Amino acid sequence: MKRVLKLVLGLIGFVLLLGLGGAAFIHFRGIPSYDPPKVDLQVEVTPERVAQGVKISSMLCQSCHAGEDKRMTGKWIADLPAEFGKIYSMNITQDTFFGIGKWTDGEIYAFLRTGVRPNGKYAPVYMPKFPLMAEEDVYSIIAWLRSDEANVQAAQTEAPLSQPSFLVKFLCMVAFKPLPLPPAPILLPDTTDVLAHGKYLANGVYACFACHSSDFTKLDMLVPENSLGYYSGGNEMPDLEGNIRITANLTPDPETGIAAYTEEEFVQAVKYGKRRNGKQVRYPMEPHTSLTDTEAKAIYAFLRTVPPVKNEKGKID
Ligand code: HEC
Ligand code: HEC
Asked: Whole-prediction pTM value?
């Protein structure tokens, strides 16, 4: 009997030690590194690309990377749930020491697609990746980063390094992994095909589905349609004061979705934050002011074709 007890106790001790060892390993190893993907690329900086890059980045990068002086010096991401740790975006200006001035175009491209930096360090979920964006739009973002625009000129300020929580480090071992490079070049959609255009903008560029589906942990960034509760909303997101905002059901469900929205009302809501019920759309949904009306209308047309889902939690009031 005693022998068995000893054995059992020994086993428990062994398992405990293994657990502690594993925890210590995860804690000290931190965020994993990967072989950085090699991409041979030299983006020609044309005025058209810079203009497009300025437009996309105003809706896709600035809210997280713009410091107090509006330059891309990085800042504390205040509205990220505390479970993630203390997370700072980084200086992405042209400074060769504090910023990304030394990165090659290929390295920036690979990072935006996969999340793996030139030094191999992976950037977890709080830095979005753009696996479905067309080559030309990724090049435009790179052209903006390389341009004479005031907000990307070299700035010698350093945002503190992120202190990801144990949870994030653990999730990076089991769930959050780098995304693959596209298997073939992604072409811009034919803008005369309104549905294809709208789908590309909503899923490939502005990732509306990422906030407007039902569960951040069940998103499929490569095949958005496979995300849980695709476009049916109900995600809880804190604003800067810690109030919880719930993302809206953008499917055409007649009871809980945007079925009642006219095209014009939708354009007003997305571009200027004016909801159909007259109230203001609140943070973290930001006005997409730089979208053209044609683009906002294309997104509307596309959302009309998404399978309707009844979801009270994301109900439009
Ligand atoms: C939701 C917030 C958010 C958005 C939106 C965002 N970023 Fe980031 N970004 C971050 C955070 C946070 C980090 C730091 C990640 C870390 O600590 O590993 C980061 C890191 C980076 C880095 C790595 C810098 C380095 O020195 O390692 C680059 C480059 C970058 N972002 C570019 C962009 C570009 C370009 C866009 C727009 C297309 C963008 N980011 C949009 C939050 C964001
Ligand atoms: C960062 C997360 C986030 C992203 C990205 C986002 N939204 Fe939202 N959206 C929200 C939240 C949260 C609300 C609810 C805001 C509130 O309660 O005031 C909202 C509200 C809305 C509404 C108002 C619905 C109503 O209640 O009348 C519309 C329309 C909308 N979003 C469309 C879009 C479209 C189209 C895109 C992509 C271009 C998009 N959103 C991207 C988070 C997001």
From this structure: 0.93
